[in-house]
Amino acid sequence: MKAVELDGIRINMVDAGDTTAKLEKQVGGKLETIMIRDGGVMICDREAMPKDLPYNNIASLIAGTAVYGKALIVGGSHEKFEDVPEQYVILLSFPEVYFQ
Questions:
Q1: pTM for the full model?
Q2: 28 and 14 in contact (C-beta within 8 Å)?
Q3: For residue 76, which of 11, 82, 87, 89 is within the disulfide window of CB 3.0 to 4.6 Å?
Q4: What pLDDT, in 10s, does the model give residues 16-52?
Q5: Which uninterrupted H or E stretch holds 27?
Q6: How far apart are CA 18 and CA 82, in angstroms?
Q7: How far is residue 59's CA from residue 9's CA, in Å, rounded to a whole number?
Q8: β-strand 81-82 against 71-76: which pairing, if any?
Q9: What is the per-residue burial (b if ≥16 Cβ within 10 Å, else e) of 59-83?
Q10: Residue 47, exposed/middle/buried by CB under 10 A (0-12, 13-18, 19+)?
């Protein structure tokens, strides 16, 4: 499954895998999902803050809540994930356009 990875100031397209175990490995811990606008789902580590992982500025702006550590943006719902929706791919080249 294709995902946009938000890791600090780095934004990349990654193959995040299609199982819970692979997604947990990608974000570094137990999954937390945050529904975001336009059919997106942000996946992050539920225990990132107690692990003292850094605050993720970009992910927090998109999610509208504090996000720590690495985050992924995919499509779908809380239970079934799909490839990242096209509207989030712009983050790879022109993140400032997304926030307008």
A1: 0.90
A2: no
A3: 82
A4: 988 989 999 999 999 999 999 888 999 999 999 999 9
A5: helix 20-27
A6: 9
A7: 10
A8: antiparallel
A9: bbebbeeebbbbbbbbbbeeeebee
A10: middle
